[in-house]
Amino acid sequence: MAPPSTFFSTFMAAILCSLSLSSASEMDILLSFKSSIRDPNNSLSSWNPTNAHPCNWTGIQCNPSSLSILSLDLHSLFLYGEFPLSVCQLPLSNLNLANNLFNQPLSLQLSQCHGLKTFNLSNNLLWGTLPDQLSLLKSMEVLDLSKNHFEGHIPYTLGNLQSLKVLNLANNLFTGKVPSIFGNFTELEVLDLSENQFLNSDMPLSFSGLHRLRNFFLQGSGFHGRVPGFFGDLQGLEVIDLSLNNFSGELPINLGSKTKLLFLDVSGNRLNGAIPSDICHGNTLIHLGLQSNSFTGSVPSSLEKCLTLEKLLIHNNALNGNFPVNIWSLPKIKLIRAENNRLSGFIPSSVSMATTLEQIQIDNNSFNGTIPSSLGKITTFYRLSASHNNFNGEIPEDLCNPDSSSLSIINLSRNSLSGRVPDMTNCKKLVSFSLAGNDLTGEIPNSLSSLPVLTYIDLSSNNLTGLIPPQLTNLKLALFNVSFNQLSGHVPPSLISGLPASFFQGNPGLCGPGLPDSCEDRQMPAKKHAGFFVPLCFVGGILMLFAGVIVLYASLRRMSCLPKNCNSISSPGVSELEVLSHLEEKNSIGAGNFGHVYRVQLPNGKFVVVKKLMKNFGERKLGKSLMAQLEKLQKIRHKNIAELLGFCYSEGTMFLVYDYFENGSLERWVCGGERNLGWDFTLRIAVGVARGLAHLHSISKDPILHRNIKASNVVLGIDFEPKIIDLGLNLIVGEADYQASMDSGMGSYCNRAPECGYSTMSTEQMDVYAFGVLLLELVTGKQAGLSESGEMVGIVKWVRGKVNTKGGAFKVLDPKFGDSFKLQMVGALQIALNCTTVTARMRPTMNEVVEELEHLDSQSHVGR
């Protein structure tokens, strides 16, 4: 018999040999995995045979005792290529490939990964239907397939995954009714079916069996019918989001009575009836979103005891009665939104006990009483919006804390407030100040001019007297409305030049350019004995005028039709006539839907472009409103928006003057014969256009919409810096003619969002869609309207049809850029597809688009 030490040594050697064989086999599988995918960032550089055991490799976690590989976590590494089924040969319990660029259907061979407990493929480019083979992964506890392009029905066979604790199918393209399989998921804690806008389903009764459910998300997924009463019996529920669906009827009266809800959002449905009184019975509720429904009755007084409540959103309903007074002083309340109801009551002085309060929005109700000065004690408070109510008394002077005030928006318009406009010296963060439609008296305080970020002032329809403080010209005001008061004196010139005259009307004592009283009469000295000089001056003036006419007739015969109503062109030493006298056929460089475009060389050698918008598009008068809009456009300054240098108008014909850009329009480079831009320049152009649009959308409270973003409306500077042009054409030619032009032509049609066909209102989301189309043109090299099998189709439909095939995302990329930038291009393609999604609310904002494109641009080394 061998000694014990010999036996132990032999035994350990056998184990180490076994481990070595096992690790070698697993290493081969992982290296095979690596070779089957693309790793543009070289994130898997540690996956090297010389690098000891695979347990030390990036993204790998091993069993500490057996050293077998348990987890493979490779999320957010920009990986793409064929889905690596070889990993199913490993004894994995966790596989995380989220936030990558895999672009293919789920393989039918996934059943080989039978040991998986966690499977995360979220935020890729996966498509097709879910295979029934998923149901064979019986050990699965977490399945996350969200943010892909999966379509078709949710398969019944998923019901076989009875160990599931988390099921996330959000942000896909599933259709039809939700199957009655959820009674099988007795262990399910999180269910997310949100943002599947093509679903059309009522609430399956099988949901009532989800007794362990904690988080339930259905927002924006086409659900309808009544909200079932079984929600009140699911005692583990903490989060319910049913927002943006078509639920109707009343909420179950037991909702919240047995559960300890933290978050409830049923906003944007067609719910009615009363708010359940026990909705915060567990005293755990943090967020209550009931807005944009048709709820009636009063706000339940039980909410006064909801000490955990942070956000109360009940706006846009038909609620009435007194607002419970103690809600104002809840210890954790941050946001109260109750606008557009029929509520009454008052804001108590005890509101200062709500030390974390940030916003009050109660516009368009019947609240009364005075505005409590104790609001000034809340250092986090930044918005008070209570217009169209019955508040009275004086506005407190100490609304802003002198030590630390966050107040930036005050809107108390259309109340019954009296007294003077308060001294707001302590409100250093005040941006918007609206007191219109009250009974305020006295003068406009000079102290407003000391507020560094004050941009919007509306004091109209009061009884203010005195002068307009000239110090206000130091502010960068986008709005200053003092109409219908009793003000007098001169309007500071810089104020009236940048604002509509209507903002000063109704003040008989005011004078200034563009007002009924131009101030000229007030400046003329009374010379009672100057009668002798008047005839002499009259005769001399007639002679000078006659001589001038002769000279002008000789030199300007060919300019007899030039406009007489011009503003100044921002080029030193250049007059409007010098520019417009060169509008000859030889200087024409093109024609558009509304007229001709000319290139004109100024005396200083500089070239400008003049757009002549022909009068057959409406005999519109250059009214004050249109003049104000044009002057607003002329003040826009951004490196990615072409500056409007000047404009002239005469008898229905408008002349717009811009800088000339030698590289022409983007259309010439993208779809014309001169395309030789590299991907670096192309991506930089996309970023620039996105920045320009984002600036327009955030320029003021009322964002400026372009409404026709396309390649021909982007010009390129000498360094290929893009400039957006043709902003505000609808204002000039008239809405009817502009709309008629937009409706003509396949190219224009393909740039337009689907909702343009039925919506009467233009939105930022429509601009986002048009930008997405432009980005698709840049990535694919195709035009917005292209020919497919002899028929014209839009680029969005064409791309979506192509990407839903194997490797399709790479097949639509413009081959002229080569293979070095494919990763970035696929990233840009995904951004474009997000911008052109059918549902407007799901599109990103332009600011979000800018962030995503800038991130791509910063990864310029990726994929090379």
Give your account of this protein's structure.
A hairpin with a 5-residue loop joins strand 44 and strand 45. The radius of gyration is 34 Å and the shape is globular. The protein has a 19-stranded mixed β-sheet, with no helix packed on it. Strands 22-24-26-28-30-32-34-36-37 form a 9-stranded parallel β-sheet, with no helix packed on it. Strands 38-42-43-41-40-39 form a 6-stranded antiparallel β-sheet. Residues 1-22, 524-565, 568-574 and 615-619 have low confidence and may be disordered. Among the domains are: 235-367, Leucine-rich repeat, LRR (right-handed beta-alpha superhelix) (Alpha-Beta Horseshoe), CATH 3.80.10; 370-380 and 391-512, Ribonuclease Inhibitor (Leucine-rich repeat, LRR (right-handed beta-alpha superhelix), Alpha-Beta Horseshoe), CATH 3.80.10; 567-660, Phosphorylase Kinase, domain 1; 664-863, Transferase(Phosphotransferase), domain 1 (Orthogonal Bundle). The protein is of the alpha/beta class and 864 residues long. The chain has 16 helices and 47 strands.
